[in-house]
Write a structure and sequence with these properties.
The protein is mainly α. The chain is built from four helices and no strands.
Length: 67
């Protein structure tokens, strides 16, 4: 599973968040988020944490998901 960066950026823009704010809200380390934003694989549970923090369904921020 990989993040869809365009969709992730759109969800972040809706919240007016940057990467550090999302990392804090999702309770993950900022370097890890930066790693996944470069197209590296992400575990479904971690993608779920990001989606929950953003208030969206996980399918809205992963490749091949809704949107």
């Amino acid at each position: 599973m990989r993040l869809d960066i365009k969709k992730l950026d759109l969800a972040m823009a809706r919240r007016k968040w940057d990467t550090p704010q999302l990392a804090e809200a999702a309770k993950i380390k900022q370097p890890s988020l930066s790693y996944w934003r470069k197209g590296r694989p992400i575990r479904p549970s971690t993608a779920g944490k990001l989606a929950e923090a953003l208030g969206v369904d996980v399918a809205e921020i992963v490749e091949g998901g809704a949107g």
